[in-house]
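Practice problem: predict the structure.
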Amino acid sequence: MSAMTSRKSRRLEFRTSEAEYDLLAAAAAEAGTSVSEFVRSLVVESARRLVEERRIVRISSQHAAEFYAALDDESLVPQLQELARQSPPELS
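Answer:
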């Protein structure tokens, strides 16, 4: 079983204003689900998207061609080896 489909055993609590709760309750009712399930599903999907966006690098076809050309340029090997030894930058 994956972490996303395993038994729900962790609790997450947060406070909302009365108006926010009423809005969430109305939306959950429209979706035919509980407020907890409505919020949980949206938050998990939002977190999944954010993590995916931060882990996937997208570049233009021009930059991809330049990147692949640089990989073939043997004069850059020492610089690439030095970069490989460095710690990756922190994502903000």
